[in-house]
Write a structure and sequence with these properties.
321 residues, alpha+beta, 42% helix, 14% strand, globular, binds iron/sulfur cluster, PDDEXK-like_dom_sf, CRISPR-associated protein, Csa1 family, CRISPR-ass_Csa1
């Protein structure tokens, strides 16, 4: 389902403790309802300013037209087979030999809900709920502060398991504050229509050999936003790349920028972000990973175990039978 909402992303923090002004990433910590408006506004601007810093990279290394999603009907984008791969299957290289995909697709093995997976799902649900609820009120012209008062406790609808209440509450409220702060900013400063964000945006990835029902976490101001938990990994950029290719194939408009937002530490959620230029290198890497997976599945060759695999792998049980 496509939901139209207003605003973008960041979170508030009193006097910006912990914010790092690094060139290509930043840290946003904490959440206080006092000063929520100013903080959310400024920090949202900081994140999107970090995207603007990537413009220089784009000028130095413009995207080759043959690596745009709309070139899906010719090599190198044209897939060897159409296997409905998920972006996360291609991009999530937690299992380096890709044995996890083989187990799921060839033996029907199911992932066990590990703690990181459960946390990630709850965070995702909290963000989605906040987007959905704010959209309903803002479209009806409810004042942002009134909307905050109405919505601030609705995170309870998610009924989080014991021990996860704080994670869900803080993630939900951070999202709420960001969107409502942005709505207030547009109203007070610009007096122009607010930027539009879409959550759980569905896009058809079949021209590129992917699923017809891909779901992008959030698109705001043409920036693809993907939420993650756990430590940042280089391959996280590939998920944004996959969505960009699918969106370009569907709409034939360029998608050059993304934002990885990490939410960690359930007891006292810590939010960090990393802007991403969806470069030629990333596009080639994504296509290479897709092609390797297609080859592996077509050739039906069981991959070896990953020598570095972690016991937290959700397929650990099935893999070691
Ligand atoms: S247990 Fe290791 S080898 Fe098996 S699927 Fe998981 S990461 Fe891959």
């Amino acid at each position: 389902m496509i939901r139209r909402v207003r605003g973008g992303f960041s979170t508030g923090s009193r006097a910006f403790p912990g914010f790092s002004g690094a060139d290509d990433e930043g840290v946003l910590i904490g959440l206080e309802t006092s000063q929520w408006l100013v903080e959310a506004l400024i920090l949202r601007r900081v994140m999107f300013r970090s995207i603007r810093r990537l413009y220089e990279l784009a000028r130095a290394d413009p995207v080759d037209p043959e690596l745009r999603g709309w070139s899906w009907d010719r090599l190198p984008l044209k897939p060897r087979a159409y296997l409905n791969l998920g972006v996360s299957e291609i991009a999530s290289k937690y299992c380096e030999t890709r044995r996890d995909i083989w187990l799921r697709r060839k033996t029907g093995a199911r992932a066990e809900p590990t703690e990181p997976i459960l946390t990630g799902r709850l965070i995702h649900d909290a963000i989605s709920l906040a987007l959905k609820e704010t959209a309903k009120l803002l479209i009806n012209n409810t004042e942002p502060y009134t909307a905050y008062q109405i919505l601030s406790e609705k995170w309870r609808k998610l009924n989080p398991p014991k021990g996860y209440e704080k994670t869900v509450e803080k993630t939900y409220k951070a999202t709420l504050i960001t969107i409502l702060g942005e709505a207030m900013y547009e109203k007070l400063v610009n007096e122009t229509p607010q930027p539009v964000a879409y959550s759980e945006y569905r896009v058809d990835g079949t021209p590129l050999g992917m699923s017809q029902n891909l779901s992008v976490d959030v698109i705001s101001d043409s920036v693809i936003i993907d939420f993650k938990t756990g430590a940042p990994r280089d391959f996280h950029k590939l998920s944004i790349t996959g969505y960009a290719l699918a969106l370009e194939a569907a709409y034939e408009t360029p998608r050059d920028y993304g934002l990885l937002i990490y939410i960690n530490n359930p007891e006292d959620p810590r939010i960090t972000y990393k802007p991403v230029y969806i470069s030629n290198t990333l596009r080639r890497l994504f296509i290479e990973e897709r092609d390797n997976i297609i080859d592996m599945l077509l050739e039906d060759a069981e991959p070896p175990k990953d020598l570095n695999c972690q016991p937290t792998c959700p397929l650990h049980g099935a893999c070691n039978k």
